Amino acid sequence: MAARTPDGELGAGRADGATGPARPSQPSRPLPSQRPPLYLRRPLLAGFLRQWPLLVVIVTVGVGLLLVAVERWRSGLLLVALGMLVAGAFRVLLPVRRIGFLAVRSRPVDVALSLGSGLALALVVLAIPPD
């Protein structure tokens, strides 16, 4: 049976009798280069990867505080001081778009506070004589 075109003329229809354009039998898969970006596929992972400097500092300080909690206060506080020094170094070396939430104030203030407090904490810990 022939299908009518919009003009009203008879035309050759599809073999299955349906009108309209034929659909492919299988959905086309996107090529690897056409995959959606990571922030759409795995938003939580992408958020952590964007904030990797902050994650490094938080993990370092967290491990230091755990050491303090298990009565290894000297090595724990030195690790906390190291985390603060690393935060200051990140703030000096990384651009603003990479530093993420470590950029709280202006760069000179952030660097002075984090490096100064990290250095002061390390000096106080090292100045206390061991038992």
Structural write-up:
The mean pLDDT is 84. The chain has a two-stranded antiparallel ribbon. It is mainly alpha-helical and 131 residues long. It has helices spanning 38-41, 43-50, 52-69, 73-93, 96-99, 107-127; strands at residues 3-4, 10-11. The termini are far apart. 58% of the residues lie in helices and 3% in strands.
Summarize the structure.
The protein is mainly alpha-helical. The chain has helices at 38-41, 43-50, 52-69, 73-93, 96-99, 107-127; strands at residues 3-4, 10-11.
Report strand %: under 5%
Terminal-residue CA separation: 100 Å
Proportion of residues in helical segments:
55-70%
Estimated radius of gyration: 31 Å
Topology, number of strands: 2
**Coarse shape:** elongated
Assembly type: single chain
Number of helices: 6
Low-confidence stretches: none
H/E series: EEHHHHHH
Which strand order does the major sheet show? 1-2
Largest sheet: 2 strands, antiparallel
Structure classification: mainly alpha
Mean pLDDT: 84
